Known about the structure:
Elements: E1 14-18, E2 54-55, E3 63-66, E4 77-78, E5 81-82, E6 90-97, E7 106-109, E8 119-128, E9 134-136, E10 140-144, H1 158-165, E11 168-172, E12 174-175, E13 186-193, E14 200-204, H2 210-213, E15 214-216, E16 228-239, E17 244-248, E18 253-254, H3 269-281, E19 289-295, H4 302-323, E20 330-334, H5 347-353, E21 355-361
Parallel strand pairs: 19-20
Antiparallel strand pairs: 1-17, 2-7, 3-6, 4-5, 6-16, 7-14, 8-13, 8-16, 9-15, 10-11, 10-14, 12-13, 18-21, 19-21
Amino acid sequence: MKQITTWKAKSIFVLLFSILTGIQAQNLVHNGDFENMTQCPDGLSKVNGYVDFITTPSKGTTDVFSKCARGKNSVPRNFRGYQKPKSGKTYMGMYLFAGGGYKEYIQLQLKQQLVAGEKYTLKFYVSLAEDSQFSVKEVNALFTGKKMEFRNTSTINLRDVGEQYGSYSLKNMKAQAKLTNTKMWIPVELEYTADGFEKFVTIGSFGKVPKDYLMKVPNPAPGSAQMAYFYIDDVKLTKQSNIDLDIDYNESFVLDKVNFDENSATLDQASKVYLEELYASLANPDKDKVVLKGHTDNIGSQEYNLMLSEKRVASVKAYLASLGMPADNIKIEAYGEKHPLYNGLDMTSLRKNRRVEFVITEFEDFQE
């Protein structure tokens, strides 16, 4: 929908928003690099209460290795081998196999519940410890809606997960190289479509029969043991984005994924994610200037709807500003029910009329 404007644009041309996966993408994992700790671990098995937002979902004794530590859990030399952090000063380590069914896991808390139907990328780095005679064919990621706390030290049983903690989703990570490398950090990755319950992700091995998930390491180091011990670092979960928006300067574009409930000006999580993608796509978010236009349905008085449309567009402005766009570069306009997209009174028409439109331009100044 073309808009007649009263300000002078420096130029009018087609702006293609190509939101590419990973550009300014927010890591949805709390403390995925393990750098934030309440205190330096003074020995092995120091995870719970030491590393912020990171827990062990079983009685397995997962380890933290840091440059601040001394002895068995120091960096780069430690009780299982030698490895520098992928980044920062800290990484973690765990047994994916140690005989007798013993395994260890890392449970990470997400910053927000995942949105059903949206696609995400989970990625982290692993390195097999030099003392290992075995490796695993794959690493698993278990998404859950609740924080798990089991009392056993063996493989976490998925049936127990479902019975005690409800919905879950187990996925196999794809490694970009064989997991027998003890010198390099190997990236493992997963493209994941959310079901909408996910608040935690647990990394480990959930295979039951060793012959199905284990493989021998060629030429293991002298003194190595019959185990598969892995270091892990830099866990990231980011939302994928495949939106291409074709927008003319000075042309209104409906932010169709920014929706409001009736009589509400509150942005839901899906709307916030959409605005984050929009902001990430801007070539010059600190220079581009935009106009946000708020609209409502026609339920209620004109005065009330005008006030509500102003609150809604103000919510969008505030969130864009929180992402880093200068508030002075965002102009808001409220129209209430004056300009409906649809004339029907059905729920779909009313919902689509409750909207915010977005206009991007380079102004010499804002003129009223």
